[in-house]
């Protein structure tokens, strides 16, 4: 461990799959200083238990009665329990990541008790006020004491809101190191593809779960119809289905559109990376996948109205598409020049940093908590 933090002194508050993934490298850097608190927003084997194990994370303190509630109930339940936990045993710092209800609850709990607060992945903005995530990330940024921005764009977004320059640090994104560490080796990837009956560079990997794609039969039907057309035209489509999407398919009677897709339960993180690493095309509305595709060098169609991650588009890895014909048209165009596209992306560096973000954030967190740490080389702008 690089820092001089006391054992159990940094509360890392999280509640969902993407937070487990992105915070794993920082938790490893913090070592025994980590006090892991899980709000239980995603708390089942497929979305959480397996990730705690596979990412080698410590056993968390688990809050109760949070999962399955509407947004305000999740935040209120988490906030009350976090406040009691922090009153009983005050952390030297609290770390949150991203834009979930757990992120906001952790931030408000730290703020209420005047505990130094670190926001990992600060400064993302979609400017889409219909997304609860946008409200969560804006509120968290404004109460944080240390804003760990992944990119120069994220720094600029924070500066545009007049956030104090002294609180902002350019760190890179921890996704770079987690992908490098968790990607299975060549033999394991070959076995994985064989188990799914897939050929390298010969299939589409798709995930959708956001409300804009699952709240109405029209939107979900439009995505699934285009995936079905791709499969009909002969390119296999692997579709690990999020629990929210599965429920929506049943509710809207859309199961017929799944018949030609290779539908699975959500897969573990290593398997997801292994499958993404050899896909001819990714189709997703996930935030994390927009970053992971740049580390893996794979093309991605982002099925969303807006994005808070323009870097992947600007670097040529991703494009934003509407769920219907635009998705189908661009998918066919991109699948028609797969070898050239993959060669170009393999030669394009990820805009998300150099793999040292978690070391930088651990050192900055230690300094914020009043404990020294070895400095880490700054991220080249
Ligand atoms: N993921 C996974 N298994 C799957 C689908 C996704 O491990 O079957 C990973 C994916 O690589 C990414 C994260 O889950 O790191 C994304 O989670 P989600 O889409 O739920 O959240 P978002 O990133 O949109 O906030």
From TrEMBL:
List residues of the UDP-N-acetylglucosamine 2-epimerase domain: 34-363
The scientific name of the source species is Kitasatospora aureofaciens
Q: Which UniProt keywords apply?
A: Isomerase
Protein's name in the database: UDP-N-acetyl glucosamine 2-epimerase
Pfam families assigned to the protein according to its UniProt record, in alphabetical order: Epimerase_2 (PF02350)
Lineage: superkingdom = Bacteria
Per its UniProt record, what Gene3D superfamilies does this chain match?
Glycogen Phosphorylase B
> Hey, which family's this protein in?
Belongs to the UDP-N-acetylglucosamine 2-epimerase family.
- One GO molecular-function annotation for this sequence? isomerase activity
